[in-house]
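Internal ticket #5521
Category: modeling
Description: The requester needs a full-assembly model to guide mutagenesis choices. All entity lines are attached below as received. Residue total reported by intake: 612.
Assigned to: D.W.
Attached entities:
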Amino acid sequence: MRRSALFSWLQAAPLALVLAVFLVVPMAMIVVVSFFDYSAFALIPDFVFTNYQEAFGSAVTWRTFGKTLWFAGLTWIITLSVGFWLAYYLAFVVKGEMTRTVLFVLCTVPFWTSNLIRMIAWVPFLGRNGLMNQALIGMGAIDRPLEFLLFSDFAVVLAFAHLYTLFMVVPIFNTMMRIDRRLLEAARDAGAGFWHTLWCVILPLCKPGIGIGSIFVIVLVMGDFATVRLMSGGQSASVGLMISNQIGLMQYPAAAANAVGLLAMVLLLMAAILRAIDIRREL
Amino acid sequence: MLPLQANVELINVTKRYGGGALAVDSVSLAIPSGSYCCLLGPSGCGKTSTLRMIAGHEEISEGDVLIGGRNVTGLPPVQRGTAMMFQSYALFPHLTALENVAFGLRMRGVAKAERLRQADRFLDLVQLGGMASRLPSQLSGGQQQRVALARALITHPKVLLLDEPLSALDPFLRTQMREELKRLQRELGITFVHVTHGQDEAMALSDIAVVMQGGRIAQAAPPREIFEKPATAFVARFIGGHNVLALPGGRFAVRTDRCRLLPAGQLPGLVSAIEYQGAAVRVVVAANDGQTAEALLPDAVFHAAPVEPGAAVTLGWDAADAHPLPDAA
């Protein structure tokens, strides 16, 4: 009994060590630094609340947090609705394992390039003289270029949706593939039409996949700074961007305080998702 | 509960899968209303496809299905007045037993309180009153099956279709559930169509047994008639308890329990195996002409004149018990 307990500890040790060194210690550092004082040139070890007071006493911070949440919410809704139907199509409409695999690989093609390139690729398409505007003008649909296409919140959310929809598709597709096809037949036999089957059978059984996809998307969007900077042309802010700017100005304790705030917010969101959905069924 | 009855009629029903493979080949069958019909056959004989075509879960390539005199060939299941009980039950894993049973009513827009009240009654009908709030994963196989049965019955179908409902149960539960199915069918008075590959199940349950082979009906008759007068050698072998033999007089089937070891029988040979089965003893005889036959002897008869494997014996039967068969396989 004692020996096997020791053995279990040994087996868990490598992962515990990795998590401790690369997750727990840095997190603790951030929390510690968030209470430091700082000057223009130096960190001053201390225990002060000024960083938090400055951060959360300012309306700008609250607006930025709000904006970040808004980006996350909008992106979540779009990736969920697009991702769900993509997964549905792959799992239930496509017949044949081969076609399904080919289409699935096709979905991952954007991931063969880096995030940055995928974002930059939108510029010639959405720009003032980009393909989109030229096409619309050429068709006579508009007579002046649409300004909101690039360097706007629209562009930011579009890029997020483009970048992260796959993170929604994969887990939902996985749960859908595990649904016993006879359940759909049983639903049909009981008189369920398409929407009834979707709402009463498929959706509840996909919840773990939706939960996991939501966690991916929300965490990625909440922590983003590059997409917001690039696609908004510097006109929008997110918490990530704010932190990145503060780091650029060497205001590490201020950045750390914001990071702790962001962490708390993300953890709250995760808690809400995990409360609503039991994802353990999927793991 | 008013019994709603309907007969089921298949007229030249054919199922052709992509690639031209024939699963069901022009099957015609009349199932009287209120009867228990078993579709019986080895796997791949087309019995499940036939059932699924009656249910509306499989497209009918050719022919018509009539239920209660109404042509339902192109209709979805809900408009046929049928309900299906699926193999391995297909219960919704996220719904409780009660919600599973109420599902059909929910789809028909019955208010929640009313449908749960009715579902409760149907759970009682299958003797699962205390299990209403359990999830399928918290129920045993036999209990899951009862939930599936209640779920199928709650919409008051005129025809209940059962796809190998007993195959996942252990032998003891199977016998018990068999009795219960028969009791329910008698009480509700609706038509049951039951797919099985077990001939004992078909014999025990059915008013009409339909033996299928290669997508066609080999014989459709009351089980006693099938056992007494198998139409083909396949039926005689599949239904069991028969020797299919060819002697100069032609091919025929003779029940193993009608065979005896006689001093002057029709089939001389050597005993190749003896199996004690309690009430009876099975004696396998390798005949001198290469055929194999067996006799099922009452234990008293066997023990009055026991034989050993290797003993030379002669198998005999009453000429009247030999049931002639067509020559083709």
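Resolution: model delivered.
Comment from assignee: The beta strands of chain A are 37-38, 43-44.
Ticket closed.
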